[in-house]
Amino acid sequence: MEHQTLYERIGGDAALRQLTDKFYDLVFEHELISRLFKSDKDLIKEKQRLFLTQFLGGPQAYSDVYGHPMMRARHMPHTITEEDAVAWLQCMASAVESLSLPEDLKNELFDRFPRTAFFMVNS
């Protein structure tokens, strides 16, 4: 049996578009973390989709366009607290929950995010 990546098992690009749309609808309205997302919403969603494609085992889409992700360095100009990371994860949890996927796959997907979210904390 051929091994499928998490990217493939969740439905690839279509699922990531749905996830990023829902996630950024929540983030841009969130009273705590909306301040971190002041640039073009469509550009932010596209960068996130490309990053998640790569992060979840799909094509190296982000690196092809923007180079190595260097996520911590890219987030360093922004003050990010543990409280911000928790809020970000709450938004992501809601976005993941909105997907039409089996619960075990939703859990596997969400479990990829906490370590990265807390790695971005810099204040």
TrEMBL record:
It holds the Pfam family Bac_globin. The keyword Methyltransferase does not apply. InterPro entries: GlbO/GLB3-like (IPR044203), Globin-like_sf (IPR009050), Globin/Proto (IPR012292), Hemoglobin_trunc (IPR001486). The keyword Secreted does not apply. This is Group 2 truncated hemoglobin YjbI. PANTHER family: TWO-ON-TWO HEMOGLOBIN-3. It comes from Dyadobacter beijingensis. Keywords: Heme, Iron, Metal-binding, Transport. Belongs to the truncated hemoglobin family. Group II subfamily. Signal peptide: none annotated. The lineage of its organism: Bacteria, Pseudomonadati, Bacteroidota, Cytophagia, Cytophagales.
